Amino acid sequence: MIDLTASEIRDGVRAGKWKAREVVDAHLERIAAVDPKLHAYLHVDADGARAAADRVDASGVKGLLAGVPVAVKDNMCQRGIPTTCASKILEGFRPPYDATALLRALAAGAVPVGHTNLDEFAMGSSTENSAYGPSRNPWDPTRAPGGSSGGSAVSVAARMTPLAFGSDTGGSIRQPAALCGVVGMKPTYGRVSRYGLVAFASSLDQIGPIARTVRDAAMFLQAFAGHDALDSTSAPAEVPDYEKDLEAGVKGLRVGVPKEFFGAGTDPGVRAAIDAALKVLQKQGATLVEMSLPHTDYGIAAYYVIAPCEASSNLARYDGVRFGHRAKSFDGLIDMYRKSRTEGFGEEVRRRILLGTFALSSGYYEAYYKKALQVRRLIKNDFDEAWKKVDVIAGPTSPIPAFKIGEKANDPIAMYLCDVLTVTAPLAGIPGISVPAGFTEGNLPVGLQLLGKEWSEATLLRTARSYERETEFWKRSPAL
Ligand code: GLN
């Protein structure tokens, strides 16, 4: 049962071939068996999951996700379920409401099994910044699964759930998906409601699907995309049928290959896998177009000013007053704020708050924040120019495969540099997908990243599916 795809599970539940309850029991059993080794979960809600499955079985209506077990990244609010963002400052917090994307998945019959580990407040690329310890990569448990949605990617890769919610601010869905050998998509800014997603950087954050197959990702996104009156940044645009043209192939599609996506730091195993992937697309009738996105290398510098600036503002709400951690002893209000925040936030989160506060302060605002916004515009212009010549842009999701736990933990710059190929899409607001593209010689997964213009999710899914049909890397599972 744990090897079934989400659409197979749903079809079987609809046809009466099996019960949602049997499906969730099999997955809960799998979690109990492998998660002690991988630590994908911060909280498993077995009773809630069984009750949700029973409700699906009892209901006459079998929705798009009927009986499909789903993991929820621990920065998405779920009523009554501990939601900590992997931070001590939110320890014990149980939200009084559900995130809209989750509510929609529930309405479609999804069965939420628990909350997954992440870098604290989604700040990181390895899940090592979790206050509750790192998750481990199922392909090699001495390595990181990527981040920040590391727990979600591990859950899907290790067959603990066929689907998981992720959130992507600078790569947090696509990069862990790539490093764990699963599919992950960051939708266009505004495609998905962020109501109930704990804010990190509000001009960048998007919720998206993590799945084993492209069809499952399409189906999952379908269930939760679309306008929400509770999120004014969600677009009032029609959501297309993402499964309709999924098998239509790539004949005539112009695929841009930017030279900047294959820089000096690219691992040779990654390079070889992506070269082979491009040949597959070419063989299937796509035209490869050599091109340039000249401002790619400035993405990291712009992102690591803009994201911390927004974070420093968003995280000001954790003051120990209404919810979360409060210092035991203090001397007045200011001291209570200072002690609660110092005790509650981990090192990377404190670094970002300090960076952001500095970059926004009078006298530095023009030099850093404003400059970063100008660079962001140049990056967006690069993409706008590109869409005149190509339909899709292809390259690696990450320049390197999964790295050892501890290898970069004490070198923030080295960690930030991992994001060079993923930060530009959220800076430009465009969608991106990572699809399994084989393995390095060391048997570590490689991800093919496809980027497209705003609202082109259907094209990205169709391209990814075309490639997946030929290669079927998703069928391999890690030995655990
Ligand atoms: N690794 C990036 C960061 O640390 C992106 C994280 C994310 O997308 N949430 O900010």
Oligomer type: single chain
Termini distance? 16 Å
Number of DSSP helices?
15
**Unreliable spans:** none
Question: What is the arithmetic mean of pLDDT?
Answer: 97
Largest sheet: 11 strands, mixed
Number of strands: 11
Task: Spell out the helices and strands N to C.
Answer: HHEHEHEHEHEEHEHEHHHHEHHEEH
- By secondary-structure content and strand pairing, the structural class works out as alpha/beta
How do the helices and strands line up, and which of them pair or pack?
Layout: H1 6-15, H2 20-38, E1 41-44, H3 46-58, E2 69-73, H4 100-107, E3 111-116, H5 150-157, E4 163-168, H6 174-180, E5 183-186, E6 206-211, H7 214-224, E7 254-258, H8 268-283, E8 287-291, H9 299-314, H10 333-344, H11 347-360, H12 365-386, E9 392-396, H13 412-417, H14 424-428, E10 432-439, E11 445-452, H15 457-471
Parallel strand pairs: 2-3, 2-4, 7-8, 7-9
Antiparallel strand pairs: 1-3, 4-6, 5-6, 5-10, 9-11, 10-11
Helix pairs in contact: 2-3, 7-15, 9-11, 9-12
The structure holds glutamine (GLN).
Glutamine is lined by residues 122-125, 148, 168-172, 200, 307, 419.
